[in-house]
Amino acid sequence: MKKQCYFSQHNIKYIDYKDVDIMKKFMNPHGRIINRKRTGVSAKYQRQLATAVKRARFMGLLPYIVR
What we know:
Layout lengths: L5 H4 L10 H6 L10 H4 L3 H17 L8
């Protein structure tokens, strides 16, 4: 069975870089973004998620790496 896209299910149109709690769901304990096949996120939202995570990292809201 295919996983449903989290953002389509919750009717989220735009992923905001300030919403750190949602982005942390799609990151592994090392601080890397988990791929689409594992999470079930659609391609459109995966691109938005990657951009939002990169912006949040630059602003200091998310770490680049966790040791």
